[in-house]
Amino acid sequence: MSSHTGSNLGLPMAALFLGTGKSAKKCFCGISISCYKWLHYGNVPMKRIILYIALAVACYLIYIALSLAMMPPVSDLANRKFTMTIQVKDWHGDYHPYVIGPKNRYWVPSNRIPPEMKWAVILAEDSNFYKHEGFDVKAIKNAIKYDLEKKSFARGASTITQQTAKNLYLSREKTLTRKVKEIYLAWRMEQELTKGRIVELYLNAVELGPMVYGIGHGSRYYFGKSASALNPRECAFLAAMLPGPRLAYNPYKNLGRVLKRSDMILRLMRQKGVLSEDEYRVALAEQPNIAGMQRKVDKSISAPPVFTSPSSASREIPANPDDVQQDNTNNEGNKEPAAEQPQDSGAAPPTSPAEPAPDNK
What we know:
The structure is a single chain. The protein is mainly alpha-helical. 49% of the residues lie in helices and 5% in strands. Among the domains are: 68 residues, no CATH class; 171 residues, Penicillin binding protein transpeptidase fold. A 3-stranded antiparallel beta sheet has the order 2-1-5, with helices on one face. A two-stranded antiparallel ribbon has the order 3-4. β3 and β4 form a beta hairpin. α1 packs parallel to α3 and α10 packs across α11. The longest helix has 24 residues.
């Protein structure tokens, strides 16, 4: 009995750890099969079962603790001249280095990002952005309930801070371990960075098309203009693509869906006072001009980008002030003055009529 039972006792242990590395569904399936075999063969003391489960949980918690202790520092991100290289995935499934910081020619500093662009993503992606400290407990509870019903990681409940942490430091794999790391990094980022800095990093790292990352590149790619020149409809249009620019909200495959979601974002901006009634009506009547762009998309997909940087991710030392444009200049060559925008503060959201605090009711 000992040898036969011993082999089966190892199954739930392996299933538990494999589940953390692949998916919750596999984890649950593995444990279910193992438990079935235990019951089938019988004669396994309940105390021993509980002991092995407790041991597996303890080992996993130790692993999580060690992983969190080895997470990279986020304090460097507070320096607006800091540059780092991350890995991004093209539509062929290959990874390439991507520069985060002023050394990226498409980088848009916070004071050159239109306030409508900031509020579009805040209202659409994370309405409690100015209220939480990196993660939204209520949203997480709702997501867990939904995921248990669907028996998969169908809903992530990630805040803008969590998405920024994931984009900068973590893989895209949907696992419990990665989610814990994401929440921890988000909490640390909220301690070290202002809300304005987090939005700046987020908007300069989001995917908006085939090897199109960040609103600086996105605004040039879709509208042929700098990010600072985007109008409210264009801001809402780019924000509408964020949940799935490759398929679900790809404007060349599902333009109607993108426009419908951008209408919803414009409506939220009007309700919160970001747009006046006249601005709202003008934006709603406008049709984004993306004619002829399908050829450009097809060309981007068929011709993989050429990079001169090595493929391994690395963090670079802060750039020399003499080599970097200051934050009050426009990195995209536009001479327009910086638009009024939400406060770059971690303490409280702006409260003027043109810059209302997001309020999720």
